[in-house]
Amino acid sequence: MEIKFSPEALEEARRIKEFFTFQQGSLLPVLHLAHREFGTVSDEVIDYLSSLLDIPVSNIKDAVSFYTMFNMEEWGRYVIQVCHTLSCALRGAAEIVDFLEKKLKITVGRTTPDKKFTLIKVECLGSCGTAPVVRINDQYYENLTIERLDSILDKLE
Amino acid sequence: MIILKDVDTIPNINTLEGYLQAGGYRALRHGMEKLDPETITEYVKDSGLRGRGGAGFPTGLKWSFVPKDTGKPIYLCCNADESEPGTFKDREIILKKPHILLEGIAIASYALDCHHCFIYIRGEFAHEAEILRKAIREAEEQHFLGKNILGSDFHLNVVVYRGAGAYICGEETGLIESIEGKRGYPRIKPPFPASVGVNQCPTVVNNVETLAFLPFIVLEGPDAYKRFGSENNYGTKLYCLSGHLNTPGVYELEMGVYLDELIEKYGGGIPGNRKLKAVIPGGSSVPVLKADEVHVRMDFDSLQKAGTMLGSAGVIVMDDTTSMVDAALNLAKFYAHESCGQCTPCREGTGWLVKLLKKIKDGRGDKNDPDLAVDICNNMEGNTICPLADAAAAPIRSIVQKFRDEFDQRLG
């Protein structure tokens, strides 16, 4: 499959490039865009962005590998991110992880065979007052109980 | 109080309409029409406002370091990275009253002669980033931001810049590197961002909460701000309560509220019949307090005297069912994951702490291991480019020292 932005995304990437003229300022916004478009930042995506932004491949890989939100491998359609830092840990993050591993029949870091779910543990999501917290793709689910999480997952297509 | 005033009584205060109804953007008008940039900076200095990102550095003083004669643009970076465990106050401001932040940004930019502002928001806050973008568009349409602000020749371009999952980008030079599209490696200082920041230009980095205080200070004057709090610790503070509490959440209170009162009265006390065991009062990077140390005022100076820090005022409460070995290991893992890897003491030290604490937790530790953990912390602190190593060492060392018996009991 040829890696190429949709016309709308390409237009947005051009606007970002024109706006962030200093250093590699356009890189993170365009990486977010690419992540939304392609679901992954693979080597092919990096090559494409390199020619689009005139930024060397090595510089892009350098940044991509540093930030946790850009995955270089393919993830499931729903990426379940369980916060397990202290405030969430105190309020049952471990039980949430146990439940998810059993329900999805995968261990942390894995994707279900149907490519629907990827389960990962993440560090503090900045929502400690409503712990335990799980983020699924871009959506936060707060004050979770196992029962609520169970029904949230059942509703995902 | 000040920042979260009216959020319960004006339901649409999160919109421009509601914010204007609550008197919003009057401070910007007052500042631009009645005061000059120097006077605003003097107001901020006189108010005693100290930065709310964690370090408590005087905001007016930080502004005064910016050279005005370089011919280069001056940048303002609003730090909305909010990555310190236990901290969730900036998100509250953005969700409930985004325009107070934008008004604060406009006032700061006017005072600093700045025309470019980046709001650096953590990548996970996709929804909050969208709220800010929408609020910026609303404000631009009515000339509170953008071109010809309030009909003047003052322009200000405010852009939301999303991070992508890295604690270290909350450190101001890591943040600047990230805005430049690079790894968030903190820079060696000096030079400080005030003279060499974004794209080598003078840059001020201020926290969301810090900026959100500016409309009040400009409109009501520094003395009105100083009616809250006490000497050197003026104003109100957004306290974040999390952990084992009945009613965790964000509470804006006068600076210097007692920690035990905060836990009992606002946090609703500890659930069940359990008892308080320990509190980390200022976000995960500060030393822990034991249950008998919590009658202390929650301000910069009082907590420093008590051997800890106000930090970001992220209060993490732990009850008597908490294993302090587990808590220490949890934090060690966080810092090991988030260490950027530039400096050896931090990169290796955080990794060693994880291995050592894991060994103790699993019952494989020997009698020297708790001392070794303290020794590692001592050798990390002060030996790195940025304060992440200190941030990892402080809570872990204090947990090992103050709850030593729990560690000794777990030894093999």
Tally of strands of chain B: 11
**SSE string of chain B, helix = H, strand = E?**
HHHHEHHEHEHEHHHEEEEHEEHEHHHHH
Spatial strand arrangement across the major sheet of chain A: 2-1-3-4
Q: What is the rounded distance between the termini of chain B?
A: 53 Å
Provide the domain count of chain B.
3
Strand content of chain B: 5-15%
CATH second-level architecture of the largest domain in chain B: 3-Layer(aba) Sandwich
Chains forming the largest contact: A-B, 42 and 53 residues
Secondary structure category of chain A: alpha+beta
| Contiguous runs where pLDDT drops below 50 for at least 5 residues of chain A | none
Measured distance between first and last alpha carbons of chain A? 25 Å
Strand content of chain A: 5-15%
Named CATH topology of the largest domain in chain A:
Glutaredoxin
Order of helices and strands of chain A: HHHHEHHEEEH
Level of helix content of chain A?
A: 40-55%
Q: What is the mean predicted local confidence, pLDDT of chain B?
A: 97
What features would you highlight for this structure?
heterodimer, A: four-stranded mixed sheet, 7 helices, B: 412 residues, Rossmann fold, de novo design (two linked rop proteins), five-stranded mixed sheet, four-stranded parallel sheet, 11 strands
Description:
The complex is a heterodimer of chains A (157) and B (412). With 157 residues, chain A is an alpha+beta fold. Chain A has 2 domains: 7-64; 78-155, Glutaredoxin. In chain A, 45% of the residues lie in helices and 11% in strands. Chain A has a 4-stranded mixed sheet with strand order 2-1-3-4, covered by helices on one side. In chain A, strand 3 (134-136) and strand 4 (139-141) form a beta hairpin. In chain A, helix 1 (7-19) runs antiparallel to helix 2. Chain A is elongated, with a radius of gyration of 18 Å. The mean pLDDT of chain A is 96. In chain B, strand 9 and strand 10 form a beta hairpin. The model of chain B has no long low-confidence stretch (mean pLDDT 97). Chain B folds into 3 domains: 16-227, Rossmann fold (3-Layer(aba) Sandwich), CATH 3.40.50.11540; 230-319, Ubiquitin-like (UB roll) (Roll); 324-409, Up-down Bundle (de novo design (two linked rop proteins)). Chain B is globular, with a radius of gyration of 22 Å. At the A-B interface, helix 2, helix 4 and helix 5 of A face strand 3, strand 7, strand 11 and helix 14 of B.
